[in-house]
């Protein structure tokens, strides 16, 4: 009887532990790939980064992130910088760098489970939420 209970418990953990991780953690490994959840500075969920690409909450491709944390929209225009891993902000007193050649649009991944919103953060002097540039997206 105990062995059956252990097997059932093990089975349910395989199902629910990954789902809980995807729902609550800000960075998860999903199907072997690192996925970073992205939030507005006010705490509302925006989308995610997967394989260096930025996607909306419904998996629409929006742009990419360079290794140094610089974020570009899908047309190659500067958006901002990845800050504290889960946010994209832009310095208000910094000149925007020249646009880059757009990258090939990746296949849209399956949309992850929408996480709970986070508590908003206090504003940073000289920074704005760069995600506001995407207001017409499907979030």
> First CA to last CA: what distance?
48 Å
Q: Main β-sheet, in a few words?
A: 9 strands, antiparallel
Strand content: 25-35%
The low-confidence parts are 19-23
Evaluate the radius of gyration.
Answer: 18 Å
Order of helix and strand elements from N to C terminus: HEEEEEEEEE
Number of strands: 9
Spatial ordering of strands, largest sheet: 1-2-3-4-5-6-7-8-9
Give average pLDDT, whole number.
Answer: 84
Number of domains: 1
How would you describe this structure to a colleague?
The chain has 139 residues and is of the alpha+beta class. It has one domain (2-134). It is built from one helix and nine strands, in the order αβββββββββ. It has one helix at residues 2-24, and strands at 27-30, 33-39, 45-50, 53-56, 61-65, 70-73, 78-83, 87-91, 127-129. A nine-stranded antiparallel β-sheet has the order 1-2-3-4-5-6-7-8-9, covered by helices on one side. The longest helix has 23 residues, at 2-24. It is globular and about 65 Å long. Mean pLDDT is 84; it is low at 19-23.
Give the topology, please.
Layout: H1 2-24, E1 27-30, E2 33-39, E3 45-50, E4 53-56, E5 61-65, E6 70-73, E7 78-83, E8 87-91, E9 127-129
Antiparallel strand pairs: 1-2, 2-3, 3-4, 4-5, 5-6, 6-7, 7-8, 8-9
Briefly summarize what is shown.
With 139 residues, the chain is an alpha+beta fold. The chain has one helix spanning 2-24; strands spanning 27-30, 33-39, 45-50, 53-56, 61-65, 70-73, 78-83, 87-91, 127-129. Strands 1-2-3-4-5-6-7-8-9 form a 9-stranded antiparallel beta sheet, covered by helices on one side.
